[in-house]
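Lecture 7, part 2: worked example. A protein chain together with farnesyl diphosphate.
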Amino acid sequence: MTTRADIADYIKDQAALIERELERSVPAEWNMPAALREAMQYSLMAGGKRLRPILVLAAAEALGGRPEDALPVALAVEMIHTYSLIHDDLPAMDNDDFRRGKPTNHKVFGEAMAILAGDALLTHAFYSVVQAARKSGVPGDTIADIVEELSRLSGAPGMVGGQAADMEGEQGVTRLEELEYIHLHKTSDLIVFSVKAGGRIAGASREQLAALERFGTCIGLAFQIQDDILDLVGDETKLGKPVQSDVKQQKVTYPYFIGIEASQAKVEELTREAREAITTAGFPSPERLLQLADYLMKRDH
Ligand code: FPP
Ligand code: MG
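Predicted complex, written out as structure tokens:
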């Protein structure tokens, strides 16, 4: 029997490992303007749950892969996530002053440097993926599949597309399906990438990748609905950002469409579906993935 404490410890340990590696992920010998390095490092090391890289490692583990082989890809997804948050906070986008309880990148380094720090992190993610081949001998074909999927799921048909749809839809979203499109791409796609990439490193079969895709889609959507719920009823100090911001910005959310109770029920339903995808696919060690799905459903920040 494992408990919530076990998974909390697992998350803490994995996050610590990821942070140690992120800290040294930009080679010290690379010659670059100090302010750029500092701006990249500021947001990379600004905390956060490290959920996406943890999912990469947990998915590899679920299939009997070695987490250290998956580490460069785990770092890559956190670099992409971090760049997206830096750009999302910019005045031209959400114009936010705080993120994870700290001043946003452009508040510290200025708008132009924040844009460049985001650009550099996005580019560096692909460098990091390739290190899985250089350091652990992950086959070139697997790296090609991962690079292809990272380009797609973080790019125009993925996260960037979701963000563009969100921008265009502001105030104009009238149907739940439109909101679902935004969430699926803005948030789920990177989560889908994370679990599939971990699976790929561990040599997942086509069926196992399909199960991981369904798992990622469901927990990604559940994660975003939970985000909407927490914006309404969450604790500001735990979240590290002001609550009720969706209401203030008149953002259309899941609770706005179907109410808070139905939103909570939807999170539970999606979590069940995610778990089922994994349990029916016969993974050798699925425990951590399953616990992560439950943990996310119950999270308060
Ligand atoms: C919070 O993640 C972030 C999301 C729910 C995703 C939001 C997506 C965007 C802002 C996409 C932006 C894209 C572009 C191209 C600008 P989290 O709760 O894991 O945050 P944490 O890392 O702080 O824990
Ligand atoms: Mg934002």
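The first strand starts at residue 98 and ends at 99. The radius of gyration is 18 Å. Keep this in mind for problem set question 3.
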